[in-house]
TrEMBL record:
Domain B3/B4 tRNA-binding: 63-210
Domain of life according to the entry: Bacteria
One Gene Ontology molecular-function label: phenylalanine-tRNA ligase activity
Record-linked Pfam families: B3_4
InterPro entries: B3/B4_tRNA-bd, Phe-tRNA_synthase-like_B3/B4
SMART domains documented for this protein: B3_4
PANTHER family associated with the record: CYTOPLASMIC PROTEIN, PTHR39209
Protein name: DNA/RNA-binding domain of Phe-tRNA-synthetase-like protein
Length: 219
Protein backbone atom coordinates (compact mmCIF):
# COMPACT_ATOMS: atom_id res chain seq x y z
CA UNK A 1 0.00 0.00 0.00
CA UNK A 2 1.42 3.36 -1.04
CA UNK A 3 1.37 5.76 1.96
CA UNK A 4 -1.07 8.66 1.57
CA UNK A 5 -1.29 11.77 3.75
CA UNK A 6 -3.74 14.67 3.76
CA UNK A 7 -2.43 18.22 4.06
CA UNK A 8 -3.68 20.52 6.81
CA UNK A 9 -5.16 22.81 4.15
CA UNK A 10 -7.36 20.05 2.77
CA UNK A 11 -8.23 18.60 6.16
CA UNK A 12 -9.32 21.99 7.49
CA UNK A 13 -11.43 22.83 4.44
CA UNK A 14 -12.92 19.33 4.15
CA UNK A 15 -13.21 17.89 7.67
CA UNK A 16 -15.61 15.13 6.57
CA UNK A 17 -13.26 13.77 3.89
CA UNK A 18 -12.69 10.02 4.01
CA UNK A 19 -10.53 8.22 1.46
CA UNK A 20 -11.00 4.61 0.41
CA UNK A 21 -7.66 3.13 -0.66
CA UNK A 22 -7.18 -0.10 -2.61
CA UNK A 23 -3.89 -1.66 -3.69
CA UNK A 24 -3.75 -4.87 -5.71
CA UNK A 25 -2.06 -6.89 -8.42
CA UNK A 26 -4.19 -7.17 -11.55
CA UNK A 27 -4.38 -8.53 -15.07
CA UNK A 28 -5.75 -5.85 -17.36
CA UNK A 29 -7.46 -6.47 -20.70
CA UNK A 30 -8.93 -4.45 -23.52
CA UNK A 31 -12.56 -5.52 -23.09
CA UNK A 32 -14.74 -7.62 -20.77
CA UNK A 33 -18.28 -8.37 -22.11
CA UNK A 34 -19.74 -9.10 -18.67
CA UNK A 35 -18.44 -5.82 -17.30
CA UNK A 36 -20.05 -3.94 -20.14
CA UNK A 37 -23.37 -5.59 -19.42
CA UNK A 38 -23.10 -4.12 -15.91
CA UNK A 39 -22.08 -0.72 -17.30
CA UNK A 40 -25.04 -0.64 -19.70
CA UNK A 41 -27.39 -1.51 -16.82
CA UNK A 42 -25.90 1.32 -14.76
CA UNK A 43 -26.34 3.71 -17.69
CA UNK A 44 -30.02 2.80 -17.98
CA UNK A 45 -30.50 3.32 -14.24
CA UNK A 46 -28.94 6.80 -14.36
CA UNK A 47 -30.97 7.81 -17.43
CA UNK A 48 -34.20 6.65 -15.78
CA UNK A 49 -33.54 8.30 -12.42
CA UNK A 50 -31.86 11.65 -13.06
CA UNK A 51 -32.21 14.76 -15.15
CA UNK A 52 -29.20 16.94 -15.94
CA UNK A 53 -30.30 19.35 -13.21
CA UNK A 54 -30.44 16.59 -10.59
CA UNK A 55 -26.99 15.08 -11.13
CA UNK A 56 -25.10 17.67 -9.10
CA UNK A 57 -27.46 16.95 -6.18
CA UNK A 58 -26.20 13.35 -5.83
CA UNK A 59 -24.63 13.49 -2.33
CA UNK A 60 -21.10 12.38 -3.24
CA UNK A 61 -21.02 14.68 -6.28
CA UNK A 62 -22.50 17.61 -4.39
CA UNK A 63 -19.88 17.22 -1.65
CA UNK A 64 -17.04 17.19 -4.17
CA UNK A 65 -18.43 20.34 -5.77
CA UNK A 66 -18.60 21.97 -2.33
CA UNK A 67 -14.94 21.10 -1.78
CA UNK A 68 -14.03 22.76 -5.08
CA UNK A 69 -15.84 25.93 -4.01
CA UNK A 70 -14.01 25.89 -0.68
CA UNK A 71 -10.71 26.03 -2.59
CA UNK A 72 -11.97 28.72 -4.99
CA UNK A 73 -12.54 26.47 -8.01
CA UNK A 74 -15.66 26.64 -10.19
CA UNK A 75 -17.16 23.11 -10.31
CA UNK A 76 -19.21 24.02 -13.37
CA UNK A 77 -16.04 24.71 -15.33
CA UNK A 78 -13.97 21.89 -13.85
CA UNK A 79 -16.54 19.18 -13.22
CA UNK A 80 -15.73 16.22 -10.97
CA UNK A 81 -15.29 13.11 -13.11
CA UNK A 82 -18.29 11.27 -11.63
CA UNK A 83 -20.52 14.23 -12.49
CA UNK A 84 -19.12 14.41 -16.02
CA UNK A 85 -19.79 10.70 -16.56
CA UNK A 86 -23.38 10.91 -15.33
CA UNK A 87 -24.08 14.03 -17.39
CA UNK A 88 -22.75 12.23 -20.46
CA UNK A 89 -25.13 9.34 -19.84
CA UNK A 90 -28.18 11.55 -19.30
CA UNK A 91 -27.37 13.44 -22.51
CA UNK A 92 -27.49 10.13 -24.38
CA UNK A 93 -23.77 9.98 -25.20
CA UNK A 94 -22.38 6.42 -24.89
CA UNK A 95 -19.52 5.93 -22.45
CA UNK A 96 -16.12 5.50 -24.03
CA UNK A 97 -14.48 2.10 -23.72
CA UNK A 98 -10.82 2.40 -22.64
CA UNK A 99 -9.61 -0.80 -20.97
CA UNK A 100 -11.02 -3.07 -18.30
CA UNK A 101 -9.48 -1.35 -15.28
CA UNK A 102 -10.55 2.12 -16.41
CA UNK A 103 -14.00 0.78 -17.34
CA UNK A 104 -14.34 -0.70 -13.83
CA UNK A 105 -13.43 2.66 -12.27
CA UNK A 106 -16.01 4.43 -14.42
CA UNK A 107 -18.68 1.94 -13.37
CA UNK A 108 -17.90 2.51 -9.69
CA UNK A 109 -18.12 6.28 -10.19
CA UNK A 110 -21.47 5.98 -11.95
CA UNK A 111 -22.90 3.79 -9.21
CA UNK A 112 -21.58 5.78 -6.24
CA UNK A 113 -20.98 9.38 -7.35
CA UNK A 114 -17.39 9.22 -6.08
CA UNK A 115 -14.62 10.62 -8.23
CA UNK A 116 -11.88 8.00 -8.22
CA UNK A 117 -8.16 8.25 -8.74
CA UNK A 118 -6.90 5.19 -10.61
CA UNK A 119 -3.16 4.84 -11.04
CA UNK A 120 -0.52 2.45 -12.31
CA UNK A 121 1.21 1.99 -8.96
CA UNK A 122 4.56 1.24 -10.60
CA UNK A 123 4.59 4.76 -12.07
CA UNK A 124 4.09 6.52 -8.71
CA UNK A 125 7.30 7.96 -7.26
CA UNK A 126 7.43 7.78 -3.45
CA UNK A 127 4.52 8.60 -1.18
CA UNK A 128 1.38 10.61 -1.94
CA UNK A 129 0.04 13.79 -0.36
CA UNK A 130 -3.42 15.21 -0.97
CA UNK A 131 -2.96 18.96 -1.19
CA UNK A 132 -4.28 21.87 -3.27
CA UNK A 133 -2.92 22.74 -6.68
CA UNK A 134 -1.28 26.08 -7.44
CA UNK A 135 -0.79 28.18 -10.56
CA UNK A 136 2.79 26.88 -10.73
CA UNK A 137 1.76 23.23 -11.08
CA UNK A 138 2.13 21.69 -14.54
CA UNK A 139 -0.48 18.95 -14.92
CA UNK A 140 -1.21 17.03 -18.10
CA UNK A 141 -4.69 15.59 -17.79
CA UNK A 142 -5.47 12.32 -19.53
CA UNK A 143 -6.82 13.21 -22.95
CA UNK A 144 -7.24 16.85 -21.87
CA UNK A 145 -3.83 18.42 -22.39
CA UNK A 146 -2.49 20.82 -19.77
CA UNK A 147 -5.09 21.30 -17.03
CA UNK A 148 -5.21 24.33 -14.75
CA UNK A 149 -5.23 22.66 -11.32
CA UNK A 150 -4.86 25.89 -9.34
CA UNK A 151 -7.42 25.45 -6.55
CA UNK A 152 -8.12 21.77 -7.28
CA UNK A 153 -7.45 19.08 -4.68
CA UNK A 154 -4.54 17.07 -6.10
CA UNK A 155 -2.53 14.01 -5.14
CA UNK A 156 1.20 14.64 -5.51
CA UNK A 157 4.12 12.25 -5.48
CA UNK A 158 7.78 13.27 -5.49
CA UNK A 159 7.56 14.36 -9.14
CA UNK A 160 4.32 16.35 -8.97
CA UNK A 161 0.57 16.00 -9.33
CA UNK A 162 -0.89 12.69 -10.46
CA UNK A 163 -4.61 12.97 -9.81
CA UNK A 164 -7.52 15.34 -9.18
CA UNK A 165 -11.25 14.58 -8.96
CA UNK A 166 -11.57 16.12 -12.43
CA UNK A 167 -8.78 14.23 -14.20
CA UNK A 168 -5.79 12.02 -13.55
CA UNK A 169 -2.35 12.65 -15.05
CA UNK A 170 -0.88 11.10 -18.19
CA UNK A 171 2.29 10.14 -16.29
CA UNK A 172 0.66 7.58 -14.01
CA UNK A 173 -2.30 6.53 -16.15
CA UNK A 174 -3.50 2.94 -16.38
CA UNK A 175 -2.65 0.99 -19.54
CA UNK A 176 -3.29 -2.56 -20.70
CA UNK A 177 0.18 -3.34 -19.37
CA UNK A 178 -0.66 -2.23 -15.83
CA UNK A 179 -0.09 -5.02 -13.30
CA UNK A 180 -0.20 -3.08 -10.01
CA UNK A 181 -3.20 -0.86 -9.37
CA UNK A 182 -3.71 1.86 -6.79
CA UNK A 183 -7.23 3.28 -6.35
CA UNK A 184 -8.38 6.22 -4.26
CA UNK A 185 -12.09 6.81 -3.71
CA UNK A 186 -12.62 10.44 -2.70
CA UNK A 187 -15.37 10.57 -0.08
CA UNK A 188 -15.88 14.28 0.45
CA UNK A 189 -19.38 13.52 1.76
CA UNK A 190 -18.03 11.59 4.76
CA UNK A 191 -17.51 7.98 5.79
CA UNK A 192 -21.01 6.73 4.98
CA UNK A 193 -20.90 4.83 1.72
CA UNK A 194 -17.12 4.74 1.32
CA UNK A 195 -16.61 1.32 2.90
CA UNK A 196 -19.40 -0.15 0.76
CA UNK A 197 -17.87 1.41 -2.36
CA UNK A 198 -14.51 -0.12 -1.51
CA UNK A 199 -16.11 -3.56 -1.17
CA UNK A 200 -17.90 -3.10 -4.50
CA UNK A 201 -14.62 -2.08 -6.11
CA UNK A 202 -12.81 -5.14 -4.80
CA UNK A 203 -15.58 -7.44 -6.05
CA UNK A 204 -15.41 -5.94 -9.54
CA UNK A 205 -11.61 -6.04 -9.60
CA UNK A 206 -11.57 -9.69 -8.56
CA UNK A 207 -14.25 -10.61 -11.10
CA UNK A 208 -12.95 -8.77 -14.15
CA UNK A 209 -9.21 -8.20 -13.57
CA UNK A 210 -8.34 -11.26 -11.44
CA UNK A 211 -7.13 -9.01 -8.61
CA UNK A 212 -4.95 -10.61 -5.95
CA UNK A 213 -2.76 -9.37 -3.08
CA UNK A 214 -5.55 -6.92 -2.26
CA UNK A 215 -5.08 -4.34 0.49
CA UNK A 216 -7.85 -2.01 1.63
CA UNK A 217 -7.78 0.99 3.92
CA UNK A 218 -9.97 3.91 4.98
CA UNK A 219 -8.14 7.14 5.71
Amino acid sequence: MIPVSISDHVRTACPQLVLGLISCSVTNSTFEPGLWEEIHAAEEYVKARYTLEQINKIPAIQATRTAYKAFGKDPNRYRPSAEALCRRIVRGIPLYQINTLVDIINLISIRTGYSIGGFDADKIEGTLTLTVGTADDHFEGIGRGVLNIDGLPVYKDSKGGIGTPTSDNERTKISTGTTHLFLILNGYSGKEGVEEAVKMSVTLLEKYSHAVQIEEKLL
